[in-house]
Amino acid sequence: MSVPDLGGYTKPPVVEVVAAVRFADLPAVLSAGLGEFWRSTLASDLPDVAVKAPYTAPTEVFTRKSNVPELSLDLMEVPPFPRFWFTAVSGDELLQLQSNWMACNWRKVVPKAVYGRWRSRRDAFQERFGQLSAWVEGRGGHVIPDQCEVTYTNHIYPMDGIWRKHAEAHKVFRPLSPLPSLPLVYPEHEILQASYVIGDQDEPVGRVHVKVQPAFSLKDDTPIFVMELTARGAPHASSLDGVMSFLDQGRQAVVTIFNSITTPEAQEGWGKE
Question: What is d(CA 265, CA 268) in angstroms, rounded to the nearest whole number?
Fold first, then answer.
């Protein structure tokens, strides 16, 4: 499958990229054996192990009430299986795995780390999903995917001549307007949140969620913007090819939206190619 070249940046603000898939719950005997899968297949590359609470992936629905939260009461008969974190020694590669969900993360853990772009991320995901599927099938089970997810997290730092404080968000994000200064009050910050449908409006296949929040760097208290873009939807087929096809489409949507809602000045600061 060809991967579209959407261009990029020489100094992108990306700090984390996640490619994930949700699938039908594995049988209890296989869920309990995920430690064996790690020992036999992953331990040499991802030797560090941590146990986390399970993750519940949101479900994208496309009805009139899709954005209205519903109240529900879950009566849990048995405790859920945990989520494992399998991490490389360097800390930048992370595999999250539980009985119905898997995610491959790349994390910028040192300032000079370079994001390897989407091809490296999709290759890592494809390899790990293939390993998991082979392990499950070798024990009489099947991994049946029903939802995919791509998330890009960006930490946007001040840029000389472009922006230096949170009130100048409009200099980085096009949908925002300059905040007015009023007598005895002055602008402080804005928050951006939006969603976009992937595919035809009559037959949507997924959705991109965008969230921008002001924050401060833990290192030196510098003002930053944390920008998260998540594409989520059903795989094009219940197979590895179907999963990869949606992940590529979701990534393309994320990049298109990022390029559309950030200003040319900010893009120039990131070295747009």
Answer: 5
Q: How many CB atoms lie within 10 A of CB 188?
A: 10
Does residue 246 sit in helix, strand or coil? helix
pLDDT at 221 over 50: yes
Domains in the chain, number:
1
CB 165 within 8 A of CB 156: no
Q: For 136-172, how does the pLDDT look when each residue is reduced to its tens digit (9 = 90+)?
A: 999 999 999 999 999 999 999 999 999 999 999 999 9
- Domain assignment present for residue 141? The answer is yes
CA distance 161 to 31: 53
Which domain covers residue 97, as residue numbers? Answer: 14-55+80-269
Whose tokens are 């990131």? That residue is 270
Cα separation, 81 vs 68, in Å, equals 29
pLDDT at 202: 81
CB of 198 closer than 8 Å to CB of 231: yes
Q: What six digits make up the tokens of 87?
A: 């991490």
Give the per-residue pLDDT at 67: 54
SS3 49: strand
Hey, which bits of the chain come out as E strands? 14-23, 48-52, 83-87, 93-98, 101-107, 145-156, 192-200, 203-216, 223-233
| Half-sphere exposure in the Cβ direction for 187 (13 Å, CA) | 14
In a domain, 147, yes or no: yes
Share of the chain above pLDDT 90, in %: 76
